[in-house]
């Protein structure tokens, strides 16, 4: 059986865009819903430091990589640096809206410090797993308009731009991992990546849940009410976490590669949307 690899005709294109500069973002920017807002804000709190970690983890293995992979690592790095920059600005607007995300950022620091204390291949493995996570979340965000229904236009545009580029470069960390572990026995490679994904998944779910609950607490929403509303939004309607389960499980299958599912059509749709909005006459 022949398994997919990164498409030969794929071009990873850094799009140097800026969002929300000079504008004020409402506290509940995502459809006026504190729960939807808290989940996306909690995710954004991880990006500046998390994506810097991704860049460092992958770039360490660029030397000696095949020329095509080396070029993709460079483009991946450029995209991630711009994602970090835009989420720094986004997080600043959340701060201006009255949220304190320092506890969320400290948790990110603790997680990253733990991984950095291990050999570089551990950081690459964690990046590979997290990049699959972000890619399948991005697929869902672009596939279902309910996730950003009624959101502030500039914030929604940021998340769609970020999601499109996460899909576009979703194979880079995985291909870097395959190159870095090319001398490993097949079962060892699978065992390590499976254990890392389980560890990453546990931390991702726990940390994003606790982060969202902390932001909801700052809105006066606590206890069983906060837990139930967050669970409903994440797992029932629109239910992004429930909908990614199959794509998440595919990671453990023999012959897995992120590009086994070619979802570049979502990038094209987003590009057309952005072009149409930029050409629309000003109100």
UniProtKB/TrEMBL annotation:
GO molecular function: hydrolase activity
EC class of the enzyme, as a word: hydrolase
Entry EC number(s): 3.-.-.-
Keywords assigned by UniProt, alphabetized: Hydrolase
Pfam families (alphabetical): Metal_hydrol
Top-level taxonomic group: Bacteria
InterPro entries: UCP07580
Protein name as catalogued: Metal-dependent hydrolase
Source organism per UniProt: Sphingosinicella rhizophila
């Amino acid at each position: 059986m022949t398994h997919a690899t990164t498409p030969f005709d794929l071009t990873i294109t850094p799009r140097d865009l800026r969002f929300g500069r000079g504008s004020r973002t409402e506290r509940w920017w995502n459809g006026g819903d504190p729960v939807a807002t808290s989940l996306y804000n909690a995710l954004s709190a991880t990006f500046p430091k998390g994506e810097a970690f991704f860049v460092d983890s992958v770039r360490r293995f660029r030397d000696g990589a095949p020329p095509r992979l080396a070029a993709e690592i460079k483009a991946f790095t450029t995209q991630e640096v711009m994602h970090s920059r835009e989420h720094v600005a986004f997080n600043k607007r959340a701060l201006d809206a009255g949220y304190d995300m320092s506890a969320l950022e400290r948790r990110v620091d603790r997680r990253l410090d733990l991984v950095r204390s291990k050999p570089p291949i551990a950081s690459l493995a964690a990046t590979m797993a997290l990049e699959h996570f972000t890619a399948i979340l991005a697929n869902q965000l672009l596939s279902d308009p309910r996730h950003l229904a009624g959101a502030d236009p500039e914030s929604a545009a940021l998340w769609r731009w970020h999601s499109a580029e996460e899909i576009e470069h979703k194979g880079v960390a995985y291909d870097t991992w395959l190159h870095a572990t090319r001398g490993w026995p097949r079962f060892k490679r699978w065992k390590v990546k499976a254990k890392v994904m389980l560890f990453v998944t546990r931390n991702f779910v726990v940390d994003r849940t606790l982060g969202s609950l902390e932001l909801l607490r700052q809105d006066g929403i606590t206890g069983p009410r906060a837990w139930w509303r967050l669970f409903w939004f994440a797992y029932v309607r629109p239910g992004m976490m429930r909908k990614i389960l199959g794509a998440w499980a595919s990671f453990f299958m023999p012959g897995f590669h992120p590009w086994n599912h070619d979802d570049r059509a979502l990038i094209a749709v987003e590009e057309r949307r952005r072009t149409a909005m930029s050409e629309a006459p000003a109100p």
